Amino acid sequence: MDLIDTFNIASSGLSAQRVRMQTVASNMANANTTRTAEGGPYQRKAPIFEAQALDPFGSTLDRALAQVHIPKIHVSESDGRLIHDPNHPDADAEGNVMMPDVDILHEMVDLMTANRSYEANATVIDVTTQMASRALEIGR
């Protein structure tokens, strides 16, 4: 494993967490969206993370190293939650409205976790850069 591998792994983590934060932001922004272009309420989304071998043909260690890959964004199949609000423009004859199944508290926790993971990957890049600089200083 070399410095480039470390940068590749950490940068894939940064990219994955950025996608995760964007997805959470979309979920939060649409927490009250009852009508979408597809019809029905907004469906919660979540990225699917997958480990992708850094070098599938390398040594045993190289094959064990993996970077983060997002093969798809999962869209929830939940019907949502039914609330009674007869004044809502999308209310049915009984005054019920189908709201998205988005829990703001859950989204906030997911956002904080993604932020911490992003910071951890950024720290790996910073420390690796410092190590490379120190190694160059020793060689002088």
Keywords:
140 residues; 3 helices; 4 strands; alpha+beta
- Spatial ordering of strands, largest sheet: 1-2
Main β-sheet description: 2 strands, antiparallel
How far apart are the termini?
A: 24 Å
Number of strands: 4
Radius of gyration: 22 Å
Encode the helix/strand succession as letters: HEHEEEH
The domain count comes to 1
Shape: elongated
* Estimated helix fraction: 40-55%
Strand content: 15-25%
Number of helices: 3
Task: Output mean pLDDT.
Answer: 92
pLDDT < 50 stretches: none
Describe the overall structure:
It is built from three helices and four strands; from the N terminus they run H-E-H-E-E-E-H. With 140 residues, the protein is of the alpha+beta class. The protein has one domain (3-138). The strands form two sheets. A two-stranded antiparallel sheet has the order 1-2. Strands 3-4 form a two-stranded antiparallel sheet. The longest helix has 35 residues, at 104-138. It is elongated. The two termini are 24 Å apart.
Question: What is shown here, in short?
Answer:
With 140 residues, this protein is an alpha+beta fold. It has three helices and four strands, in the order H-E-H-E-E-E-H. The chain is elongated and about 80 Å long.
Element layout with pairings:
Blueprint: H1 3-29, E1 45-53, H2 60-64, E2 66-75, E3 81-84, E4 96-99, H3 104-138
Antiparallel strand pairs: 1-2, 3-4
